């Protein structure tokens, strides 16, 4: 019997560096399945179908919506974004741990459907660094930057809806902590059951 | 402000190898405070006061009992054994993580007083290995061995009173898992608070 993998949601306000953490985790752990979002936004230069996103036209995205095929979805600046449910469920069923990298609103929606998941909240080491990262993203006006800072601060207040906090001070150390959390979660007693009527050489307790 | 250390209770039926795990953890992690039990049993050859045990006469042990100085205690074959409370509390207050290696009955008593602790349950990889370890301990009769096996099995049923299970298959891997649990527990959101009115360079969230 295959032991289902864990669902790990890595989230946090934009500008906290959750993408960087996920990229490093992806390089370290080819055994993990990283979920890929679907979007109706056109591909940017260098973006590859099935690697960065599943690119869809509006009609087929809406058909997927009608068939309830998303774990969560949102419309941002007239484009749809969503997390297809089937690949996540299939990967978990095959025993793979699955990572979703997702914004705060999306994570809270996933949590409603999958409360058994492990929810990680990435926070920046300081306000100054959060602002620096948001500024680094583009040539936005001070007004836009202040708006994004405000949004990030409101999102930060959702910390306690998560299980773990990852302070993104040094990326590789943050990824060490994520890996420790995966290892520790696999040891929680709720994930184990006793083997009844096992042979003397068989395990006494096994993951369920 | 010093962030208090964690209380980690490593427990399990006798013969599961919790002592071996603790010894290896002790070697890896000199930063952890390992609690030392007090006992009225006379020292065996090679045992050192303050390393293996605090050796007490009956009168001073009972005076400590009267002063409520134990986190837990028991009488085994006419000898007292107990975990002195003060060193544990002082070490935690100084920011050190504290490990208690303790039998199942003792761990359940500690849990009543310190539910915020992290309770690890060490289980043998199989019944056959449990029996082999119990047999290896001495030249006991089959009757005594069977009795110990029975006791171990009853104790195993307490698994779900703990937070984590450590299957003791390969010691160093089991210790890796214990270390991951310590690291992960330090990331749980309950252990963090927001910094209110901090400077822009100060952390946004800090351990509490």
Outline the fold blueprint.
The structure is a homodimer of 208-residue chains.
Chain A: E1 7-11, H1 18-28, E2 33-34, E3 38-39, E4 54-55, H2 58-66, E5 70-76, E6 79-84, H3 85-93, E7 98-101, H4 104-113, E8 118-123, H5 127-136, H6 142-156, E9 164-167, H7 171-185, E10 192-194, E11 205-207
Parallel strand pairs in A: 1-7, 1-8, 2-7, 3-4, 8-9
Antiparallel strand pairs in A: 3-6, 5-6, 10-11
Helix pairs in contact in A: 1-7
The chain-level structural class of chain A is alpha/beta
Beta-strand fraction estimate of chain A: 15-25%
Shape summary of chain A:
globular
Distance between the termini of chain A: 9 Å
- How many strands appear in the DSSP assignment of chain A? 11
Oligomer: homodimer
- The low-confidence runs of chain A, each spanning 5 or more residues with pLDDT under 50, are none
- CATH topology name of the largest domain in chain A, in short, is Rossmann fold
Tally the helices of chain A: 7
**Strand order within the widest sheet of chain A?**
2-7-1-8-9
Q: Quick one: biggest sheet of chain A?
A: 5 strands, parallel
User: In the CATH hierarchy, what is the architecture of the largest domain in chain A at level 2?
Assistant: 3-Layer(aba) Sandwich
Order of helices and strands of chain A: EHEEEHEEHEHEHHEHEE
Summarize the amount of helix of chain A as a percent range: 25-40%
Radius of gyration of chain A: 19 Å
How many domains make up the coordinates of chain A?
2
CATH superfamily of the largest domain in chain A: P-loop containing nucleotide triphosphate hydrolases
Largest interface: A-B, 38 and 38 residues
Mean of residue pLDDT values of chain A:
93
């Amino acid at each position: 019997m295959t032991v289902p993998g864990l669902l790990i949601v890595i989230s946090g306000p934009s500008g906290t560096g959750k993408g960087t953490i996920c990229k490093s985790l992806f390089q370290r752990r080819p055994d993990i399945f990283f979920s890929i979002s679907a979007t109706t936004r056109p591909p940017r230069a260098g973006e590859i179908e099935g690697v960065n996103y599943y690119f869809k036209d509006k009609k087929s995205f809406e058909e997927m919506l009608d068939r309830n095929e998303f774990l969560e979805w949102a419309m941002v600046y007239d484009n749809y974004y969503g997390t297809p449910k089937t690949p996540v469920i299939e990967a978990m069923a095959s025993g793979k741990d699955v990572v979703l990298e997702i914004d705060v609103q999306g994570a809270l929606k996933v949590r409603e459907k999958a409360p058994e998941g492990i929810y990680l909240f990435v926070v920046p080491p300081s306000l100054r660094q959060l602002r620096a990262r948001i500024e680094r993203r583009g040539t936005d006006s001070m007004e836009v930057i202040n708006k994004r800072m405000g949004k990030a601060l409101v999102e930060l207040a959702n910390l306690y809806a998560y299980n773990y906090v990852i302070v993104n001070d040094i990326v590789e150390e943050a990824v060490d902590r994520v890996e420790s959390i995966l290892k520790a979660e696999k040891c929680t007693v709720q994930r184990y059951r006793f083997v009844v009527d096992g042979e003397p050489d068989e395990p006494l307790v096994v993951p369920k």
